[in-house]
């Protein structure tokens, strides 16, 4: 027996979410049916508010509800050090370690020729502009240790060399080909603490 079309429509939409298969989607649909209308309205309201009110920080591209994020506004942070990450999930992973007290710069991706994404598609020029405008002493490159992440790190290092600032790369701990997002806290902490300096000379 087939479900009513309204049920099928919602199942189809839910299976578009990452990690949600048909069985999980069916359970969610029946959860909605078993609970009050208010639960569904609150969920839909939260989704709409998320899409309408969340934005990228004008300084670092972190997610925020205001013009600038709480990290950029924090006077207690080390504003002379910037950690460069691929996306906001990586920023949150590093923040959870508690070992980095500087600012961040979110690239919103990594260089990936296979996906048609080059340096101009990332926020690299914004990073260079920040460094020139602010008294930045060190840039920590914390892109993933996979092909795309290493390619991105190399490009950034080459772009920043003329600025004569200290550059470093996250160190040992994270296996090659893995993601900063999924590294456990102890491994990520070790990687941040063991970051190695990148020579500013060719």
According to DSSP, the number of beta strands is 7
Oligomer class: single chain
How many helical stretches?
Answer: 8
How big is the Rg? Answer: 21 Å
Give the class from helix and strand content and strand pairing.
alpha/beta
Strand content bin: 5-15%
Distance between the termini: 69 Å
Basic shape: elongated
Largest sheet, order of strands side by side? 4-3-5-6-7
Throw out a few tags for this protein.
202 residues, alpha/beta, Dna Topoisomerase Vi A Subunit, Chain: A, domain 2, 2 domains, 5-stranded mixed sheet, two-stranded antiparallel ribbon, elongated
Structure explained in plain terms:
This protein has 202 residues and is α/β, with parallel strands linked by helices. The protein folds into 2 domains: 5-53, Orthogonal Bundle (Helicase, Ruva Protein, domain 3); 76-198, Dna Topoisomerase Vi A Subunit, Chain: A, domain 2, CATH 3.40.1360. The protein has helices at residues 5-14, 22-34, 37-53, 70-73, 88-97, 124-133, 147-160, 185-193; strands at 55-56, 63-64, 78-85, 102-106, 138-141, 166-169, 196-198. The strands form 2 sheets. It has a 5-stranded mixed β-sheet with strand order 4-3-5-6-7. A two-stranded antiparallel ribbon has the order 1-2. Helix 1 (5-14) crosses helix 2 and helix 5 packs across helix 8. The mean pLDDT is 89.
């Amino acid at each position: 027996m087939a479900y009513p079309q309204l049920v099928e429509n919602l199942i189809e939409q839910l299976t578009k979410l990452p990690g949600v298969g048909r069985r999980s989607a069916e359970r969610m649909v029946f959860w909605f049916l078993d609970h009050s209308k208010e639960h569904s309205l609150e969920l839909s309201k939260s989704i709409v508010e998320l899409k309408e009110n969340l934005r990228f920080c004008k300084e670092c591209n972190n997610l925020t509800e205001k013009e600038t994020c709480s990290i950029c506004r924090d006077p207690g942070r080390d504003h002379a050090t910037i950690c460069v990450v691929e996306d906001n999930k990586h920023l949150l992973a590093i923040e959870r370690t508690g070992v980095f007290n500087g600012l961040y710069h979110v690239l919103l991706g990594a260089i990936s020729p296979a996906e048609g994404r080059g340096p101009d598609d990332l926020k690299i020029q914004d990073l260079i502009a920040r460094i020139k405008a602010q008294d930045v002493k060190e840039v920590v490159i914390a892109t993933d240790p996979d092909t795309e992440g290493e390619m991105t790190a190399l490009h950034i290092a080459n772009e920043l060399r003329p600025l004569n600032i200290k550059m470093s790369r996250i160190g040992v701990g994270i296996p090659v080909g893995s993601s900063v997002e999924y590294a456990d806290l102890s491994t990520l902490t070790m990687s941040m603490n063991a970051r190695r300096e990148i020579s500013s000379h060719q």
